[in-house]
Design goal:
It contains six helices and eight strands. By secondary structure, it is α/β, with parallel strands linked by helices. Strands 1, 2, 3, 4, 5 and 6 form a six-stranded mixed β-sheet that branches. It has a two-stranded antiparallel ribbon with strand order 7-8. It starts with a helix and ends with a helix. It binds zinc ion.
Length: about 270
């Protein structure tokens, strides 16, 4: 039991943190508005990481809840099942989203139907489903969890590429820089990482599905994400490579989804 006075104190603390988060988010996203498309994308992602860093939920990979540190990527138990060549992922969308936001979310989902055998379908009675909610920050569990699993698109998160990023987590993918072969492609700078955030850069045992490392993946962090001093936390070993885009899925992102779910040629051809 929580005594009323304690409850009031907890609520006040919570509300104060929420206000702090909202005002920080507004300022950060606003500061991106006058920038060009590419710079905007990088700016928006940095804002989201900053916003996420203010929230209370513990996120192990910046946007992956900590209690799910088990690696789903190499474990097929966390894949969504396929029926008749189609992987149906049921979802619900909270009524907290506006009509315009729901359109962005549905457009981002439609890209999966057009280029993979994964189809996000409105939930009817399915037991396992993704519940899209507007909580603090942008985050998702990795892979199918069983029952309802939340995916948050908070303030500053409802953008095409960011929605796809979180949906790809739900399909059972970690970040690109967590790949088992990442040291051949990027250098991590632990000395520049915010103290306590080093786990975001952990190398994991991943099934890379025969795909080459993709600097441009929508699942890759930007160069200065979680930087304590403004210096790079990740440097591509190919100097000309740029990392951290959030325009949307790349061909390699799509290829990996199709490989993980063993999408058949015929199921893809049906969509063209
Ligand atoms: Zn992520």
């Amino acid at each position: 039991m929580v005594r009323p006075r304690r409850k009031l104190l907890n609520w006040t603390l919570c509300w104060t943190q929420e206000l702090q988060w909202v005002s920080a988010a507004r300022a950060l996203v606003k500061s991106c508005e006058s920038l060009s498309d590419l710079t905007w994308s990088v700016c928006a992602v940095m804002s989201i990481l900053a916003v996420n860093s203010l929230q209370q939920i513990s996120l192990t990979q910046g946007d992956v809840p900590l209690r799910l540190t088990r690696n789903a990527n190499v474990n097929s138990d966390y894949k969504w099942p396929m029926y008749l060549d189609v992987v149906q992922v049921p979802f619900t969308i909270s009524s907290d989203f506006t009509g315009a936001e729901i359109n962005v979310i549905k457009n981002a989902m439609q890209a999966f139907s057009l280029s993979t055998c994964v189809k996000f379908v409105p939930r009817t009675f399915q037991y396992n489903y993704v519940s899209i909610v507007k909580q603090s920050g942008c985050w998702s569990y990795v892979g199918r969890q069983g029952g309802e699993q939340k995916l948050s698109l908070g303030y500053g998160c409802v953008f095409y590429g960011i929605v796809q990023h979180e949906l790809i987590h739900a399909l059972n993918f970690w970040h690109e820089q967590n790949r088992s072969d990442r040291d051949d492609w990027v250098q991590i700078h632990p000395e520049n990482i915010i103290e306590g955030k080093e786990h975001n850069f952990k190398k994991r045992e991943t099934d890379n599905l025969g795909a080459e490392y993709d600097y441009f993946s929508v699942m890759h962090y930007g160069a200065t994400d979680f930087s304590a001093n403004g210096k790079d936390t990740i440097t591509p070993l190919v100097p000309s490579a740029s990392i951290g885009q959030r325009f949307g899925m790349t061909e390699t992102d799509i290829l990996k989804i199709n490989k993980l779910y063993a999408c058949s040629e015929s199921s893809l051809q049906l969509k063209t």
